Fold this sequence. Notes:
Layout: H1 2-20, E1 47-48, E2 52-58, E3 65-71, E4 80-85, E5 90-93, E6 104-111, E7 117-127, E8 134-143
Parallel strand pairs: 2-8
Antiparallel strand pairs: 1-3, 3-6, 4-7, 5-6, 7-8
Amino acid sequence: xxxxxxxxxxxxxxxxxxxxxxxxxxxxxxxxxxxxxxxxxxxxxxxxxxxxxxxxxxxxxxxxxxxxxxxxxxxxxxxxxxxxxxxxxxxxxxxxxxxxxxxxxxxxxxxxxxxxxxxxxxxxxxxxxxxxxxxxxxxxxxxxxxxxxxxxxxxxx
Length: 157
């Protein structure tokens, strides 16, 4: 009798665990890249792909040049009047001439990577864009300290 009860318990337990571990088939939907349509504005417009550039952690004296890409989503030419960095270590550049409706443009920025440590700086863009005559962009990251020079005498304490 004990053997029958034990056999029945094992059968019930085995069936329960087998069906509990049966994975439901999950159908993943394919993610297709959909182009986000930028709204049109009456006049000059400016929509950035990214308003923040994260340099991440970069070596000392690495290339600090990056670009903010934007598109003129307006019906009239866009003119970038000026670009201004928040300090002397951030040097922005602007496109020369007007950006036609639907055309892309770039705002270049170069950060001085000779300054070790974390940084967050801004670039102020002034333009004729309707509703956003002044736009603030951000760069951030961390510059590693300069590597120790070989042959340098150890510091005595």
